[in-house]
Design a protein that fits this description.
CATH architecture: 3-Layer(aba) Sandwich
Bound molecules: inosinic acid
Structural class: alpha/beta
Number of helices: 4
Number of strands: 9
Radius of gyration: 17 Å
Length: 189
């Protein structure tokens, strides 16, 4: 390969410090699932996962929820190859099933600046759901640019770039089973 290649640096995930272990994640996802089951007892819910980052969290969360639930996915433009968002959010994949009159929970991997979830919340509300809540695996409150809070949060974290459990850097590391800190000097490139 040419030395002038601009491919992002790949370092083994094992070299990245673990922030939350598989066990810690499992425990929190189960707790959130139990809370949702309690809050929606006797109801049916639709989980709307935000691709691709929330796919793994949604898969675990759906299986931790005891009330009747179905799921769907939407996709929006993301951070691309680096960690800096342009601020522009665009819908790439819409809902497959109607959510009018349904109890909806949007499931996200990370609530960061809040731009993505503000956009999605507005979009979902146009479909007139019976109710709308937000569940996120991680929350970075320090980074918020628009006022939005999640109803269910597994972990609140400082302003650090993370990978694993569905979360990527340049589309890599989504398969890593735990959540790890990605070196800032590489994430910024
Ligand atoms: P927001 O619109 O700034 O809230 O961006 C949310 C999206 O940014 C998340 O769904 C992630 O895809 C991405 N993101 C934010 N922080 C991280 C991170 O630390 N690692 C990986 N992706 C991140």
């Amino acid at each position: 390969m040419s030395s002038a290649s601009t491919a992002p640096v790949f370092i083994p995930a094992s070299q990245c410090e673990v922030l939350f272990s598989e066990d810690e994640i499992r425990e929190r996802v189960r707790a959130i699932g139990a809370q949702i089951s309690k809050d929606y007892a006797g109801e049916s819910i639709v989980l709307v996962g935000v691709l691709k980052g929330a796919a793994i969290f949604l898969a675990d969360l759906a299986r931790s929820i005891e009330v009747d639930n179905t799921f769907d996915f939407v996709a929006v433009s993301s951070y691309g190859k680096g960690k800096t968002s342009s601020g522009a959010v665009k819908l790439i994949k819409d809902l497959d099933v109607p959510i009018e009159g349904k109890h909806v929970i949007v499931v996200e991997d990370i609530l960061d600046t809040g731009l993505t979830l503000s956009y999605l919340r507005k979009l979902m509300l146009q479909h007139k759901p019976a109710s709308l809540k937000i569940a996120t695996c991680l929350d970075k409150p320090e980074r918020r640019l628009v006022p939005i809070e999640a109803d269910y949060v597994c972990f609140s974290i400082p302003n650090r770039f993370v990978i694993g459990y569905g979360m990527d850097f340049a589309e890599k590391y989504r398969n890593v089973v735990d959540i790890r800190l990605f070196p800032e000097e590489l994430a910024g490139k």
